[in-house]
Amino acid sequence: MSTASYLAADALSTIRWQLLASPSVQAAGIKLWLCQLHTAQPLLAGNKCLKLKYHIQQIQQLQCAGILTFGGAYSNHLAAVAAVCQQLGLKSHALLRADSLDPKNPTVTYCLSQGMTFSLLSREQYRTRQQTDFLQQLKLQYADLYLVPEGGSSSLGVQGVAELPLALTPAGQADLICCASASGGTLAGIALGQPHCQVLGISVLRDSSLSSRVQQLITDTLGKDSSTMPGNWHLTDTEPALAYGKFSQQQLQFCLEFKRENGITLEPVYTGKAMHKLYQLINSGHFARGSRLVFFHTGGLQGLAGLYSRGKISQADYVLLSAPEAD
Ligand SMILES: Cc1ncc(COP(=O)(O)O)c(C=O)c1O
Q1: CATH topology of domain 2-46+162-211+231-322
Q2: Does residue 245 line the site of ligand 1, with CB under 6 A?
Q3: Is 76 in the pocket of ligand 1 (CB under 6 A)?
Q4: 257-269, pLDDT tens digit by residue?
Q5: Interval between CA 182 and ligand 1 midpoint (Å)
Q6: Which of 9, 185, 260, 262 could crosslink 157 through cysteines, CB 3.0-4.6 Å?
Q7: Which residue minimizes the CA distance to atom 3 of ligand 1?
Q8: What pTM value is reported for the model?
Q9: For 48-152, CATH number?
């Protein structure tokens, strides 16, 4: 294991590298490195502190009162925004995809405790969240707040992710970096930041527009300088390819087995679904023997409490998955 300090958002973060010793990975002749980004505030771990870093900088420069953003009822992004805004004395307001504020929802309860306020959007209203008219109206309505898109995926979010030196494993340059992908900013940032490495995004939702959104984020971040447009990334689906938030028994069992084997927590909505697919690819001989792969652990462990509260995972599963990780 190897660690290094890394300054992101407002907190001193630590990059932790770990070579995974799963027998099936070793049998395939693959060196698989897990990269975790730990933060003093656990809700900012993984991609969260990276995607929020330049948004926060911008808010401080523009002297905005806080953040206006979007998310689903169990969103890791909303929990991270609520935490960072509370820490920095900023306001936070979320447009929540929900019909009501469920007092049993641990994510919403946490966000409320950090001072986040909510407006509720129906599923249909939520679908308009990227439309110019709607965004313009929001900017007028919440003039003192800085609008951060869903998942923090904007060119500012992409720039933050691009700074993490994911291709530099303790054993040398990686051949491929892999991550879970949903709103696309993480994949776009890694592709831009690590131009000499292949990057594989594993989509955790059934959304045929994800690829064009990643491309758009890359274009927006590069601005006019499209001569440096990277062609080093691609997307694949999980197997089975289920809708966002849904997972198979196999995918859940994989997370449990992974925790027992490596002492590291994955959850079945993002990192577990993606790592399961990576193992399927490794076991099917997709990668040449001797390849050095990196999996970026994007965080999101607060979501486990919501899965348990909705009966999507059992108490025993919750206890195992939320147990502290091995040092
Ligand atoms: C834990 C976790 N992993 C991966 C992702 C996917 O990142 P992105 O939305 O940038 O594609 C998210 C969403 O932000 C997430 O919460």
Answers
A1: Rossmann fold (3.40.50)
A2: no
A3: yes
A4: 999 999 999 999 9
A5: 6
A6: 185
A7: 298
A8: 0.95
A9: 3.40.50.1100
